[in-house]
Specification:
- The protein is α+β, with helices and mostly antiparallel strands and 256 residues long.
- The chain has five helices and ten strands.
- Strands 1-2-3-6-5-4 form a six-stranded mixed β-sheet. A four-stranded antiparallel β-sheet has the order 8-7-9-10, sandwiched between helices.
- Strand 2 and strand 3 form a beta hairpin.
- The protein is globular, with a radius of gyration of 19 Å.
Length: 256
């Protein structure tokens, strides 16, 4: 069923009531799994992800890992598990699923260039992601959850890796030059509209992740990227507040 965008042109509101530059509700927690070295739980709208981090620990290089400099640096290994009940179609993806493998490699490459892997030679940092619910921005949610879990594990990094999605109000076939960019697309919007996932380092404009699998006119790309980078700055503030609140609770528990 095609996405009805007629209400947007009249009230400049999307189907869920948000304006073009508004994020969905974001909720996150740290240290949700006591047995893991680092863990987190993150919600971006109805997309829900649990992340655990193990290591740095001595281990062997696996297929889903990445790390510059061979054994002189730690290897970042990523495993993504998508629950069969997470989506509407209730499709269970196996270990050899192409889309899951691409997501694992993207996340591994992003953190291999951000973490100080040279401090842990001949080691492996394992990031395990469990997707409980999907409603758009899946890769962005996984990147944000992994960032929080790595911070909880105490793995040093140059800055936060924060991500979000941005899209356009018109599809490629309509060729509408007046189409407006949209921030943080939900699942319904991703099915019908062109979108990209952008990840930046901290609140700056240095792009570390950029993934786009849909077709869009080149004239719209710059606006979509600018909106996505601005959205990453908002995500950075939210994640930073989560980390600071967690640190404050730890300090209060030590004092008592």
């Amino acid at each position: 069923m095609p996405l009805d965008t007629s209400t947007y042109s009249l009230a400049l509101l999307r189907l869920d009531g948000r304006r073009w530059n508004e994020l969905r509700r974001m909720h996150a927690q740290i240290s949700t799994q006591p047995t893991a070295d680092g863990s987190s739980y993150l919600e971006m709208g109805n997309t829900k992800v649990v992340c655990t981090v193990t290591g740095p620990a001595e281990g062997r290089r696996a297929a889903g890992g990445a790390g510059p400099g061979g054994d002189a640096n730690a290897t970042v290994q990523v495993e993504v598990g998508i629950a069969g009940f997470s989506g509407v179609d209730r499709k269970r993806r196996g270990r050899g699923d192409k889309r899951t493998s691409e997501m694992q490699m993207t996340i591994a490459n992003a953190f291999s260039n951000t973490l100080f892997t040279n401090l842990y030679p001949h080691s492996t940092i394992l990031i395990t992601l469990h997707v409980l619910s999907q409603d758009g921005s899946l890769l962005a949610a996984c990147l944000n959850a992994a960032t929080l879990a790595l911070i909880d594990a105490g793995v040093p990094m140059s800055d936060y890796v924060v991500a979000c999605t941005s899209g356009s109000t018109s599809s490629y076939s309509s060729n509408d030059e007046a189409a407006d960019p949209l921030l943080d697309l939900n699942g319904t919007e991703e099915l019908e509209l062109p979108f990209l996932t952008v990840g930046t380092l901290g609140a700056g404009e240095k792009v570390s992740v950029l993934v786009m699998e849909s077709r869009v006119q080149a004239t719209r790309l710059e606006g979509m990227l600018a909106v996505g980078v601005d959205g990453c700055k908002q995500v950075k503030e939210i994640l930073d507040q989560v980390v600071r609140r967690h640190g404050k609770r730890i300090l209060e528990s030590v004092k008592t």
